[in-house]
Amino acid sequence: MGNRLTQIATRTGDDGSTGLGDNTRVSKASGRPQAMGDVDELNSHIGLLLCEPLPADMRELLIDVQHQLFNLGGELSMPGYELLKDDALLQLDNALARYNAELPRLLEFILPAGTRAACQAHVCRTVARRAERAVVALQQHETMRAAPRQYLNRLSDLLFVLSRALNRMDGGSEVYWKSERLARQNDATE
């Protein structure tokens, strides 16, 4: 395959438009570039998470997720084109089942806190939710497959679970929200 990008500073976007993969130009403020940008930002945040010490299996999973997000971004940039395959969603479902099985039941909401890796996983989760909202908004105006929306929804769930797993590594734990309900429950058991 030849070089796809021969020049980065093309100046073609100076007018507020951007080119899609099908050679059409759209406003940078329209839904498709918004969704593409959110997916790109998510991928960048996952790259930052990969800078942290992670278990090898989690690292491999997140590296593959980055490739799948690139596929998803490519699909968003080419209306009517399919790059994100069904097995990508299955991979997330399998990882969710695996990591959830290792975690105790949640007692209350948890805060996006704890270790730096867990906090970065939470940042990734929130960006994944924003990307999902952008895709949902786009799907209200354009016909699209459900796979991009489903992938982002499932990925945000997985990132939540991974944040819990990362906080529990080496004997750590989640940081629970200090709710009145939990305080009353704890007082009743003491």
UniProtKB/TrEMBL annotation:
<feature type="compositionally biased region" description="Polar residues">
    <location>
        <begin position="1"/>
        <end position="10"/>
    </location>
</feature>
<dbReference type="InterPro" id="IPR029499">
    <property type="entry name" value="PduO-typ"/>
</dbReference>
<comment type="subunit">
    <text>Homotrimer.</text>
</comment>
<keyword id="KW-0547">Nucleotide-binding</keyword>
<dbReference type="GO" id="GO:0009236">
    <property type="term" value="P:cobalamin biosynthetic process"/>
</dbReference>
<keyword id="KW-0067">ATP-binding</keyword>
<dbReference type="InterPro" id="IPR016030">
    <property type="entry name" value="CblAdoTrfase-like"/>
</dbReference>
<comment type="similarity">
    <text>Belongs to the Cob(I)alamin adenosyltransferase family.</text>
</comment>
<dbReference type="GO" id="GO:0008817">
    <property type="term" value="F:corrinoid adenosyltransferase activity"/>
</dbReference>
<keyword id="KW-0169">Cobalamin biosynthesis</keyword>
<dbReference type="Pfam" id="PF01923">
    <property type="entry name" value="Cob_adeno_trans"/>
</dbReference>
<dbReference type="InterPro" id="IPR036451">
    <property type="entry name" value="CblAdoTrfase-like_sf"/>
</dbReference>
<feature type="domain" description="Cobalamin adenosyltransferase-like">
    <location>
        <begin position="8"/>
        <end position="165"/>
    </location>
</feature>
<dbReference type="GO" id="GO:0005524">
    <property type="term" value="F:ATP binding"/>
</dbReference>
<feature type="region of interest" description="Disordered">
    <location>
        <begin position="1"/>
        <end position="37"/>
    </location>
</feature>
<protein>
    <recommendedName>
        <fullName>Cobalamin adenosyltransferase</fullName>
        <ecNumber>2.5.1.-</ecNumber>
    </recommendedName>
</protein>
<keyword id="KW-0808">Transferase</keyword>
